Amino acid sequence: MLFISNIMIWKTNPAARRAWRSLMLRLNSTTAGLSSGPGFWDRSDRLSCVSAEKPPHTPVMLKEVLHYLDVQPAQVVLDMTFGGGGHTKAILNTIPEVTVLALDRDPTAISLAQQLAKEHSGRVKPLLGRFSELEALLSNMNIKSGSIDAVLLDAGCSSMQMDQAERGFSLSKDGPLDMRMDGERYPDMPCAADVVNTLDQQALASILTAYGEERHARKIASAIVEARRVNPITRTQQLASVVAGAFPPAIVYARKDRLQRRAHIATKTFQALRIFVNDELNELHTGLCVAQSALKPGGRLCVITFHSLEDRLVKRFLQGHDLSNLDQYHFSQNQQGSRKKKLVDENSGCNKSPNWLPVKRKVVSPEKDDVRENPRGRSAKLRIALRQ
Questions:
Q1: CA distances from 298 to 138, 242, 292, 369, 386 (A)
Q2: How many CB atoms sit inside 10 A of residue 339's CB?
C-alpha cells in the first residue's frame, strides 16, 4: 500500500478531500504496476536525502520575535518549527538558562537540532514529528499541559527545504517532484508527482483553487492532464513548463510579487500542491490547539505566516472561531465580506470561548531593511497573543 494506514489526512475543502480519497484509492490499486507500463513513473527517482551542511536560512523577523516572545531566564520555550534553527539559536544566545523544545517534521531539521543540543547541553530538546504528533511527544517527555512559557510557530516551507533541489519544492531548481516535508519518514506517503499524475482534471482544479487561490485552475489542470498523457510529470521544472505552456509567453511572468518582482505563473500551483501533500492547514490548526493547551496562563504565542490562507486561519482561531470542522469553514478571500458569525461550539473543540488576548490588534510585518536582506520574508505576517 502506498500510504501508511494509520496516518489519516483530511483536507480542508470538500472537493479537495474527495480528491485525496481518490488519490489513495488509485495509488493503492496500482502499487503492483508502478514500475511498468505506460502512465506510471519510478517513485525511486525521488531523492529526499538532504545534506545538513548547507548554511541554514536567515530567520524571519528575528528582532520582532525576540521582542514579542519576551522570554525570561530559565523559562521553557516551544519552537514548533525549528527549521534551520535561527530563532532557537538567538533565544539560546540572548537568554540565560532557557530551555527550548525544538519540534520539526523534517528529519534534516532535527539533525541540526541534535547538533545544537550537543553545543548547549540540556538546553535543547529535539522533537521529530508533525503538529498532530506533538501532544503525544510532549506527553512522552512528561511535559504537562499549561507548563510552557512561550510558543513560536513559523508556518509553511523553510528556506532550507526550498534551497534543496532534491526536495522538489522550488520551481526554479530542477529536481524530483516530491514536496514532502517529512522527507523519507513515511516513504509510502504520496508526493506531488503522485498527485499530478493520478488525479483527474476536476480534482486537480479543486486543489489549485482551494490551496493556491489560482483563478486559472481549470486551464492549468487541463494542461497537466494533457501533458501526462504523453509523459509522466516527475520533475519540478517539467511541471513549471507544463503550466507555462498553457499561457501565452507574455503571461508567464506577468504576475508580480510584493517587491514588484516578476513571479512565475506556476507559483500558485506549486503552493497548492505543497499544502495539499503536507496537509498544512489541518496541521496548522492542530498545532494552534496544542499550543493553546501547552501554554501557561499569560504565556505568549507568536505565529508567523506567509500566505493569506494561513493568516486567515490563525486570525480566526485567535478570535475564538470554532475551526474543528475545517472542511465546512471557508478561508478564501471572497468569503471575507460575508462577515460570518463566530462559530463557537460550547460543547466541543479547543475553542470553547476566546482564550487569547491579542498583544497587537494588527499583524506585524517585516521592516523594509529586513525585506531587502531577506526577500523570502517579504510576505511574512506575525501575530502575537497572550494565553488567557
A1: 20, 51, 11, 32, 5
A2: 6
Segment (H or E) for 28: helix 14-29
Contacts by 344-350, CB closer than 8 A, 24 or more apart:
344/320, 348/322, 348/324, 349/289, 349/322, 349/323, 349/324, 350/289, 350/292, 350/293, 350/324
Q: In what order do the strands lie in the sheet with 381-387?
A: 124-128, 99-104, 76-79, 148-154, 295-305, 381-387, 356-358
Distance from CA of residue 112 to its chain's centroid? Answer: 19
Decide: 164 and 183 in contact? Cβ < 8 Å.
no
Query: 26 falls in which pLDDT band (50, 70, 90)?
Result: low
Using DSSP, state whether 20 is helix, strand or coil: helix
Q: How confident is the model at residue 375 (pLDDT cuts 50, 70, 90)?
A: confident
Mean pLDDT of the chain: 83
CA-CA distance, 80 to 284, in Å (whole number)? 10
Write phi, then psi, for 137 (nearest 5 degrees): -65, -45
Q: Say how far apart CA 158 and CA 304 lie, in whole Å.
A: 12
Question: Concatenated DSSP letters for 179-248?
Answer: --TTTTSSTTS--HHHHHHHS-HHHHHHHHHHHH--TTHHHHHHHHHHHHHHS---BHHHHHHHHHHTS-
- How many beta carbons lie within 10 A of that of residue 34, not counting itself? 15
pTM over 0.70: yes
Cell numbers found for residue 34: 508502478
328 pLDDT higher than 70 = no
Length of the chain: 388
Reading the block at residue 209, the C-alpha cell is 483553487
Q: At what angle do helices 62-69 and 86-94 cross, to 10 degrees?
A: 50
Separation CA 11–CA 211 (nearest Å): 10
